[in-house]
Prior knowledge:
Blueprint: H1 2-22, H2 26-46, E1 51-58, E2 63-70, E3 73-80, E4 83-89, E5 92-100, E6 107-114, E7 119-126
Parallel strand pairs: 1-7
Antiparallel strand pairs: 1-4, 2-3, 2-5, 3-4, 5-6
Helix pairs in contact: 1-2
Amino acid sequence: xxKSIVGxxxxxxxxxxxxxxxxxxxxxxxxxxxAAVKAIDTAAVVVADGGTITGKIxxxxxxxxxxxxxxxxxxxxxxxxxxxxxxxxxxxTYTVTILGKSPYxxxxxxxxxxxxxxxxxxxxxxxxx
Length: 129
C-alpha cells in the first residue's frame, strides 16, 4: 500500500509539473513543484515500516511460534521450515520468546535491540529438551 501512496503522489507531482510547464508564469510552477516535493517527502516519512527480527531454530520443527515483547506490546511470528521473521517492530529493546513444542522447552532471548528500517538477525537458536 505504501508504494501505491508514494506512486500516486509522484504521479500527481508530475501532472502538476507538466501543467505548470505549459503556464507562462514560472513562479507558479516553482511554487507548485516545491509543494509537491514536500508532500512526497512527508508521505515517505509516514509510511516507515519499522524493523524486523529474524532467526533460525534448531531443530527446525521444535517450535511453531515466536513472540517479541516490548513492554506490554507483543508481536508474533510463525516458524516455517525452522526460520522466522517478525516484521514491523518499532525501535526498542525486545524480549524474544521461542515457544517450543513438546518435548522442547521455550527459549528466551533478552535485550534484542531493533532499529527503524533494519533487520536484527538472532542467528541460530538451539532448543533444549
